[in-house]
Amino acid sequence: MRLIKRHIDDDGTGSVTLCPEEPEDMWHAYNLIRPRDLLTASAIRRVTTESASTGSTASQRVHTNLTIRVKSVDFDPQAGQLHVSGQIARENRYTKIGQFHTLDLELQRNFTLEKQVGGIDGGEGWDSVARAQLEEAIDPARGTEAVAVVMQEGLANICFITQHQTVLRQRIEVSVPRKRSGAGRSADHDKGLEKFFATVLDTLTRQIEGLMEGKDSSTNFPILLASPGFTAAGFLKYITETAASKGSKLLQDMVKRKAFVVIHSSSGHLHSLNEVLNSPEVLARLQNTKYARETALMDEFFALLRKDDGRAWYGPKEVETAVEKGAVGRGGGVLLISNSLFRSQDIATRRRWVRLVDRVREVEGGEVRVLSGDHESGKRLEGLGGIAAILTFPIEEMESDGEESNGSDNGSEAS
Amino acid sequence: MSNRRVKSLAADEDDYDDYDNYDDDYEDGGNEELSPEDKEQMRQGTTKVREAVGSAFPATDKEIHDALWHYYYDVGKTVAYLKNKQKPSTAPTKAKKDEPKSKLSTSFCSTALPGISRSDRGGQDGLQATIPQKDADGRQECISSTIYSTEFSAAEFFKDCPWLRIPEHRKAEILIEPVYPRLGLLGGASAGGKMSKLAALAAKRRQKESERSESTATGSSESQDDYTTRLNKLRLQEINRAKSNTSRDADTPMREGDKAVSDSGVSADILRQDLPDPLSHGQTTSTPDLSVSVEPCIRGRPSPFASIMTSHDADLFLPTSPDLLAVGENAKSFDFAEPSPDDVVMKAQNAKVAAPAKTKPKESARTKTTSLAHGVQQLSVQETPKVKSKNIDVLAEYKKVKRKKAANFVVIGHVDAGKSTLMGRLLFDLKAVDQRTMDKYRKEAERIGKGSFAFAWVLDQGTEERERGVTIDIATNKFETDRTSFTILDAPGHKDFVPNMIAGASQADFAVLVIDASMGNFESGLKGQTKEHALLVRSIGVQRIIVAVNKMDAVDWSEERFAEIRQQMSAFLTSAGFQSKNVTFVPCSGLEGGNILAKCSDPKASWYTGPTLVEELDQSEPSTYALDKPLRMTINDVFRGSVLNPLSVSGRIEAGNVQVGEQVVVMPSGEKAQIRSLEVDDEPQDWAVAGQNVVLNLTDIDPIHLKTGDVLCSAVSPIQNVSEFRAKVLAFEHLTPMNIDVHKGRLHVPGRISQLVGVLDKSTGMVVKKRPKIVQPGNVVRVVVQLDQPVPLEPPSRVVLRANGETVAAGLLEKNEMRP
């Protein structure tokens, strides 16, 4: 996302003009735009005019810039589209204040986001988390994108891995007959498997073509084929054969530059992606990405949790207590928090987490990691209630019988 | 015989549409005023009759007229009738005069007690009343007599309705308006209830009837037989309707029957259409309100004739040969020998001494009519399914057939322990695989440089499996010993294929754990899949385990090695929850074939005197299954069986039974399918029960709805789809809220532990610690698992939870929490 203009006061009020360039930027915008913000973007609106003399009506579509006070944000990760709806806050010659409008943010079209402090409903303005998110959004260093195919016999999940999210693009299910005893019956299985491979390859090619659209053809990204057993290896063999015999140029190119990497995973379900991204093959490629670091931290957290020595805690209450006791501080204290917690509609809830983050970062001196809930590591964190901490010293017993201690759902509902 | 008439007999609701037509008929036939044509015919007929009987015959013109009218101007019959009538001419005229009043009173009597008479009686009345009419061929008569029989009982009317079984004290009081007799229905009845011509005729006829039946019991029974024979002949006619040339002798009954049908149809319909719309007949008599009580005939009882006619539709077998026994029996249930109850009452009132013997036949008639009612109930027409179910009582059949013991066992163990080779050798030794095939395998295996895999190839049929020398999927094979027929489920040992192994183990009755005895391999196996598999089969519910210590040839049949392995494994298996009496050890060699079928010939192995592997297998006790529970079967495989059976599924029935033609539901899709045919152990069968390995050939379903891991269940009580469940599991690894795969047989779905409800005490099951943060391995814990998609699961079933390629927990489903 390109930053066009930034004007943020010390107290947090101010506006930012941004230009989204990639679908991923929509995800950033989704994190930045919160209810009660003012959003200005170009819009197409149908305007009905009534002639004063005859009373006849005429309607026309007009392109205009609209400013709305955001009521709800709707993000479609698969299509990379962001719909923001709210009430018009500034009048212009076509619209009146208070009318409803849904802005569809588009690529290559600027939008201006304004956050206010105080006001009627006590907005927080650009708080520390929002500023960090903004910095992240406008960071020009793009991480390596990878395409992953997590598969097992009869099932394949094609997903795009970006810096901040994992998008499941397509799930493929093809029924493959099992092997059966009897002469020639294993042919059924082989045939079914080949059909499965063909389907997956077709879909994968289509997805990659879509991804390459509008990009330099030399763009290099790995395609990870992960499966238990020999399915992925068999698939790679199939790809190579197909590319040689009848493959498109794109496919041949990819085979030539060895874009395909076969990785072991324990199952073909999406959450095996976690194993994929931990595999040495991938870590070598995605070494410095935010994602790799997050995954490593989550693993560290789980390792500590297994030791059960009181240095790893999860759940909102527990982590807050630990922070209060100063256990998440300098020398190894890490606060892991899912960004979905900051999406809370309730200002007080968001404020609670922002304060926690600020305290750890500024007062205690610990490390804070805001994990993307759209990534596998973030999903693992959300399973723990959206928040976890690695402590500098063990806290043995934390009595909390609050309902939320083991929050049954992800942290967004915890309050 | 028109369709319409037949239909009217069936007393369908649609028949209301036809009323207008019948209306017209009656208008024509029933008018007091004779049409000019009729008059002319009447005149001619009278002359002819006079000629025939002679002038001396003491019959009035009126009588002749009546008779003619009655017989449709059939001179011959009229003459016969008149002559007949004259013979017992005691006092016909007097009787005729008496009758109107008496009849009136009778009908009032009977109708004055509505709802009191039990259903039997009500039904019988109606029936009895209509039957003689047909016998007598009388149109008018049947109308009037049916009216008399309109005695109504609510109990009878709602006989087959469930609300009728309301306890007495809860019933509301229902006042049912009596049905007033409507005499002279067609004969232009006047207000006074004066006897119409038709009614008079009917009365006369009945009078005669009763006299006849009184005089000769044999004669009447003969007439009844005659009637049924005629009906049956008619029945045959119906079947051969296509044949235009009907035999001569069958012709007459046909016509008469025809008339009877029309008559009875008319009689039923007159009442029906009449009651809702009395004005159409210009009736001035007081007609009852249009309440329920006045529609007794809506659900008219099918006449015997109708039941015979309609029996054709119900696909009942009817003999086409002169052997009419079956039909005769059927028809006998309407005994025409007995007079109707009306007649009995009438006789009593006419002061014509009623024989006390009469009551007995009446009773028998009653029972016979009820049996008729049952018969009619069974005649309900059903939608014909594509594949006809034979409606076998599977459980009864199952008990009848005596069979060999059958057992499934799963072969488990670490990768390369020699599971497939051992089983290949077993099958070869038992002659389940012939020498030629074996030679072929051996040659092929040697060609790709894997000579030692020849036996494994018996089970590893997949191309990839052979290339890589690794079992990937479960292989099933069958063999028989003298006592038992076995199904081998050869599981893959490789870590990645544990899901397949779980699928195999969930079908097994007991397990054979194969252990590589060679140095180092046993130790590494114990850390690997030997341990995991053993834990898995135990948590899936397998009780008995045979440990085959394989590759003994590699350690020179060392007794010490065997003892060492035995000691370690016993300790481990006991800790895993196997009872020591259910664990047995056999040293053997798959490659060489020692101690599998026969004792090992190697002198070094002489120290072992215990049973061989096959002998050990034979010790297995057959498991019992819930045969009477609703059907449950997890689909193991979906495939194209053959050209005839384009869609087949295989699996082991977990509960219940299934038969050809049955409708089943596939979950989670909820689609219905029909069993076209089924095979039990590759043999076509009509039914199968729990515990059997079956191939079901399905129809009426799109293959899209079938996946391995789906559950076939009975349509009556299908399994529910759940997206969240609660389970009591034994933790093998650390448990936190985390992502897991849920396995149950072939079912393999992603999900996550959303909540650790509490650690339980192993022995008491009480909650020791609520909401633990983390659960240490070895603890029993209650967890809530959320699934990404709804899947068919129901308690009590055993699930295995895996994460990152490791089994983290296994346990029992507790309570489904429905979440739409």
TrEMBL record, chain A:
- Family from the record: Belongs to the eukaryotic release factor 1 family. Pelota subfamily.
Segments forming domain eRF1/Pelota-like N-terminal: 1-139
Identify the species of origin: Capronia coronata CBS 617.96
Mainly resides where? Answer: cytoplasm
Q: What is this protein called?
A: Protein DOM34 homolog
Instruction: Report the PANTHER family cross-referenced here.
Output: PELOTA (PTHR10853), PROTEIN PELOTA HOMOLOG (PTHR10853:SF0)
Cofactors that this protein relies on: a divalent metal cation
Single GO BP term:
nuclear-transcribed mRNA catabolic process, non-stop decay
Describe its function.
Component of the Dom34-Hbs1 complex, a complex that recognizes stalled ribosomes and triggers the No-Go Decay (NGD) pathway. In the Dom34-Hbs1 complex, dom34 recognizes ribosomes stalled at the 3' end of an mRNA and engages stalled ribosomes by destabilizing mRNA in the mRNA channel. Following ribosome-binding, the Dom34-Hbs1 complex promotes the disassembly of stalled ribosomes, followed by degradation of damaged mRNAs as part of the NGD pathway.
The compartments listed are: Cytoplasm
Q: Name one GO cellular component term.
A: Dom34-Hbs1 complex
**Keywords from the named record:** Cell cycle, Cell division, Cytoplasm, Meiosis, Metal-binding, Mitosis
Single GO term (MF): metal ion binding
From TrEMBL, chain B:
Q: Which GO terms describe its cellular component?
A: cytosol; Dom34-Hbs1 complex
Tr-type G domain residues are: 404-625
Q: Please note every region of biased composition (Basic and acidic residues).
A: 235-261
Q: What is its main location?
A: cytoplasm
Q: Which GO terms describe its molecular function?
A: GTP binding; GTPase activity; translation elongation factor activity
Q: For the region Disordered, give the residue spans.
A: 1-47, 200-295, 352-372
Q: Which GO terms describe its biological process?
A: cytoplasmic translational termination; regulation of translation
Q: Cite the record's Polar residues compositional bias ranges.
A: 281-290
Q: Where in the cell is it found?
A: Cytoplasm
Sorted alphabetically, the keyword list is:
Cytoplasm, Elongation factor, GTP-binding, Hydrolase, Mitochondrion, Nucleotide-binding, Protein biosynthesis, Translation regulation
The chemistry this enzyme catalyses reads:
GTP + H2O = GDP + phosphate + H(+)
- Is this entry keyworded GTP-binding? yes
* Top-level taxon in the UniProt lineage: Eukaryota
Bias-annotated ranges (Acidic residues): 11-35
Kindly give the InterPro entries that the UniProt entry links to this protein.
Answer: EFTu-like_2, G_TR_CS, GTP-eEF1A_C, HBS1-like_N, P-loop_NTPase, Small_GTP-bd, T_Tr_GTP-bd_dom, TRAFAC_GTPase_members
Family of the protein in this entry? Belongs to the TRAFAC class translation factor GTPase superfamily. Classic translation factor GTPase family. EF-Tu/EF-1A subfamily.
* Alphabetical list of NCBIfam families matching this protein: small_GTP (TIGR00231)
**What assembly does the database describe for this protein?**
Component of the Dom34-Hbs1 complex, also named Pelota-HBS1L complex, composed of dom34 and hbs1.
The molecule here is called: Elongation factor 1 alpha-like protein
User: What is the scientific name of the source organism?
Assistant: Capronia coronata CBS 617.96
